[in-house]
Amino acid sequence: MTTGKIEEPLIHLPPTQTFRILVLENPENIDKLKEVCKLNGHQVVPCFTIGESMLFLDTKDHVDLIISAVHLEEESVFEFLNKVKAPQSVHKDVAFVMLCMEPNPLASVINKSTELAGKLMGADRYLYMPEFDANRLIVEIADLLPPVPMKELD
């Protein structure tokens, strides 16, 4: 599986309605997120590590929205959030969604404190999904997308 590369949408919308979404997720969940975003006409940049995500953000191109798993393998979503939302970051205005999808029992117990910490650090939205809900995800992120995709403003 290629990561850190732009994947084109499965349906084509006008350029003014095609947004680019960076998804940082664990391998077992990334395909669900990619599929729902691409089926709704968005470009997707799938990543498995904070390093891959920052490499894309800092050297490749823009994104209109970031969706990050709350529970990453061997990394911290808070580290990623801190890098993206730092005052000197060129990405600080990009909407950031923390996604707790199909959590294990421990994640369910610490859910509220994780949500509060994320919001205090600058996350725009925290989504808790004991079961993945594609329709809810699209509704929640639609509210955070900019009026015009960044690529159209260049």
Characterise the protein shown here.
By secondary structure, this protein is α/β, with parallel strands linked by helices. The protein has one domain: 3-Layer(aba) Sandwich (Rossmann fold), CATH 3.40.50.2300. 39% of the residues lie in helices and 18% in strands. The chain has helices spanning 27-39, 50-59, 77-85, 105-109, 111-120, 134-142, 150-153; strands spanning 20-24, 43-47, 65-69, 95-101, 125-129. Strand 1 (20-24), helix 1 (27-39) and strand 2 (43-47) form a beta-alpha-beta unit. It is globular, with a radius of gyration of 14 Å. The N and C termini lie far apart (30 Å).
Overall domain count: 1
Number of helical stretches of at least 4 residues? 7
The low-confidence runs, each spanning 5 or more residues with pLDDT under 50, are none
Q: In whole angstroms, how far apart are the ends? A: 30 Å
Q: Could you report the average pLDDT, rounded to the nearest whole number?
A: 90
Helix content: 25-40%
Record field, number of beta strands = 5
Report strand order across the widest sheet: 2-1-3-4-5
Structural class: alpha/beta
CATH class: Alpha Beta
From the 3D structure, determine the CATH topology: Rossmann fold
Shape: globular
C-alpha Rg, in Å? Answer: 14 Å
